[in-house]
Automatic annotation (TrEMBL):
This is Uncharacterized protein. It comes from Planotetraspora phitsanulokensis. The chain crosses the membrane at residues 54-74, 143-166, 178-195, 202-219, 254-271, 277-293, 313-333, 345-366, 386-404, 445-467, 479-498, 510-530, 542-564. It comes from the Bacteria. The keyword Glycoprotein does not apply. Keywords: Membrane, Transmembrane, Transmembrane helix. Signal peptide: none annotated.
């Protein structure tokens, strides 16, 4: 249900945003209506679950609700732009209040070389300003602003976090078994990165809901079909959950289309979603190949029903991803340019996968014949062991990587230099050797160990090796796509996280796929170990209890250091006071660098007055006095009241007596490079104002 509801909202929201009609009434009618339609048609003929009672459902719902309440009580208030969450928040506020892009520049008496309208997270484009990121998360967060202003906006992330816990539990029920779903939901809910991204406006949680929700939708579509045997062996066995469900073929294609749509819409939420769902493209091609193979061989016409899911899955994927690319090309073009260095290779990989998928689907009968001819060979007999061994080698390689590689990047672009300077300052605070070229990416697997514990990583590796071995033998087809997404995204993310490496900030990269994927596999691995122990005559209940403790407790211990300390509290009240101090007929000029980065869009969007920065000479944080005087006179010429803002009163005294309009004393996230975060840092922000006489 969460994935279906978000899909309906986003499908309706983007066209309305592009038309400038992203307003409460149109979105309630179109977005809310489409979400209800998707949920109705997606849920009205669910497969019947007969393998367990009601307690797993009640337990998962209870864990999700507890997660939402806990994170809601300790939610953050990142509104002053310092990093991505506040950019998303300001993006959402603008959409909720104005419903269109780009953001107008405002009237300052005409153009002037000293005027700067851009700020951190906001680009100049097409005669206006556009936010840095994709529109999906702000379109979701805008719901909270419509319902309760800023207070409602900051409570949307905890609700999404609760839905993510529910989604992980539902996916575990389908892939492992309903009795194991509460354990997966609990292990996920207590992990620090999940707590971190469930308390403020990140994009990772909506992305997780769409991807794992789409997995569940596709698994339900498979359950509606009778999985038969195929000559290639891909459908040779069904999971225990599959055998416990009654086959219901009706609506399977529609469910597959909904799954593809949810997969594709991750691109509208995060550009990185294109990489995460790349295996879906290959999987859809495989299903189409199975359908062609069944038509080519009369004996298989009733034995490859899953091939029917390929075309609707592919169409849904294309539709969802198409909306994401439409947003990139219309309202996120500068962001696309900023990411071009990493996005172009990704698009090239996607194009190559698409070509290979088309060719493989077209040549399916020929390939099947060659595979069949080789199936009795020595290589084919060794393939299961090779697949399992490769899994262990990859994990072992990532584990020893810190001892054989040090990942560095020499600054080339201005953005690289800013990152290098930040890393150098963070190293100084962490009492580490100063080396601004370090990225610490070689430690990425150990990041996972910090946040979920060694037992989860070990059990997940075991489960992946066992599943890879079984799939090489033509079994566990239900795990093929989930394992492909989890494996592909985990390896590529851990190899190159592509994020500033301080924690908990960098931990957000692990949230959409890596952490939930590891937990799903670990729970499956625990079930496998229990069955083996039972087969060998050992007691299984004590083993399961011990395993559950090992899956939950290490993550909880790491989370304790920050779980009960909210960050950025007081920002909402401070911003409210700032806006109250600024006259409604003002045009604001910000005359200091850091304040301009932090509050230009905040004053423009939340306070609702035209805002610009005054340019400053190179190697200076203060603009020229003559530029300020000239701009003040031009603002007066428009009939508006000039207002100057800065971080210190001394920067404003030449233009009038300053008044402090924002005084924030709060806590912020720690910035740890080589250890898991275990506390918070102080945060101090001051803003002073004057109105030139």
């Amino acid at each position: 249900m969460p994935a279906l509801a978000l899909s309906g909202w986003l499908v309706a929201g983007l066209p309305l945003l592009l038309l400038g009609w992203f307003r409460p009434l149109p979105m309630v009618l179109a977005g809310g209506g489409l979400a209800l339609v998707f949920c109705w048609y997606g849920l009205r003929r669910l497969p019947e679950v007969v393998e367990s009672g009601a307690w797993p459902t009640v337990a998962v719902l209870g864990i999700a609700a507890a997660s939402g309440i806990f994170n809601g009580l300790l939610h953050g208030e990142q509104l002053i732009v310092r990093r991505d969450p506040a950019t998303y928040a300001q993006y959402a506020v603008w959409l909720a209040r104005h419903g269109s892009l780009p953001i107008p520049l405002g009237d300052f008496g005409g153009s002037d070389p000293a005027l700067r309208f851009v700020s951190m997270g906001f680009y100049a484009w097409d005669g206006g300003i556009v936010p840095q990121f994709m529109a999906g998360p702000p379109m979701i967060h805008a719901i909270g602003y419509w319902l309760g202003g800023v207070s409602g906006l900051v409570l949307v992330p905890p609700i999404l976090g609760a839905l993510a816990v529910l989604t992980v539990g539902g996916t575990a029920a389908r892939l492992v078994g309903a009795r194991w779903a509460p354990l997966a939901a609990l292990a996920f809910a207590v992990s620090m990165p999940v707590l971190y991204t469930s308390r403020t406006t990140f994009s990772e949680i909506p992305s997780l809901i769409l991807i794992l929700g789409a997995m569940s939708l596709l698994l339900d579509a498979r359950f509606r079909l009778r999985a038969g045997l195929l000559g290639l062996g891909f459908l040779a066995s069904a999971t225990p959950v599959e055998t416990a469900r009654r086959a219901q073929p009706g609506g399977a294609r529609l469910m597959a289309a909904f799954a593809g749509l949810a997969f594709g819409l991750t691109v509208l939420v995060r550009v990185d979603g294109l990489r995460d769902v790349l295996p879906v493209l290959a999987y859809a091609g495989l299903l189409i190949a199975l359908a062609r193979l069944s038509r080519a061989r009369d004996a298989m016409k009733e034995r490859a029903p899953e091939g029917k899911l390929g075309p609707p899955l592919l169409l849904g994927l294309a539709a969802g991803a198409g909306l994401g690319f439409a947003a990139c090309l219309t309202i996120a073009r500068p962001y696309l340019g900023y990411l071009s260095g990493s996005l172009k290779p990704l698009i090239a990989i996607c194009a190559a996968v698409l070509v290979l998928t088309v060719v493989a689907a077209a040549l399916a009968p020929w390939i099947a014949g060659r595979v069949g001819a080789l199936s009795g060979g020595r290589l084919a007999r060794r393939l299961p062991d090779v697949a399992a061994g490769l899994v262990v080698l990859v994990v072992a390689g990532l584990a020893v990587r810190p001892w054989v590689q040090t990942v560095r990047r020499v600054a080339v672009t201005p953005e690289d230099q800013l990152t290098a300077n930040f890393i150098g300052k963070t190293q100084q605070v962490n009492h580490l050797p100063i080396d601004q070229t370090r990225l610490y990416y070689e430690d990425s697997l150990w990041w996972v160990v910090w946040y979920v514990g060694v037992p989860v990583v070990v059990l997940a590796t075991l489960a992946t090796a066992v599943l890879a071995r079984r799939m090489a033998k033509g079994r566990e087809f239900g795990w093929l796509l989930p394992l492909a997404i989890i494996g592909w995204t985990t390896v590529t993310t851990l190899w190159r996280p592509a994020i500033t490496p301080d924690h908990p900030w960098a931990s957000r990269r692990l949230v959409p796929i890596v952490i939930p994927g590891m937990i799903l596999l670990a729970v499956w691995g625990l079930r496998w170990v229990r069955r083996r122990a039972h087969r060998w005559g050992y007691g299984s209940r004590l083993l399961v209890a011990a395993g559950a403790v090992l899956l939950v407790v290490p993550a909880a211990i790491t989370s304790i250091g920050t779980a009960f300390t909210p960050v950025d509290r007081g920002e909402a009240a401070a911003v409210k006071g700032l806006c109250a101090a600024i006259p409604p007929n003002a045009s604001v000029l910000i005359v200091e660098r850091a304040t301009g980065d932090r509050i230009t869009q905040l004053v423009r969007g939340v306070c609702g007055v035209p805002t610009a920065r005054v340019a400053y000479p190179q190697h200076s944080d203060v603009p020229l006095h003559s530029d300020i005087e000239r701009l003040v006179d031009k603002v007066r010429g428009t009939g508006r009241l000039p207002v100057l803002l800065a971080a210190e009163p001394g920067q404003l005294w030449p233009y009038g007596p300053p008044t402090q309009v924002l005084k924030l004393r709060s806590r912020q996230d720690e910035r740890s490079l080589v250890d898991p975060p275990n506390g918070t840092w102080s945060l101090t922000i001051d803003v002073w104002m004057t109105m030139p006489a």
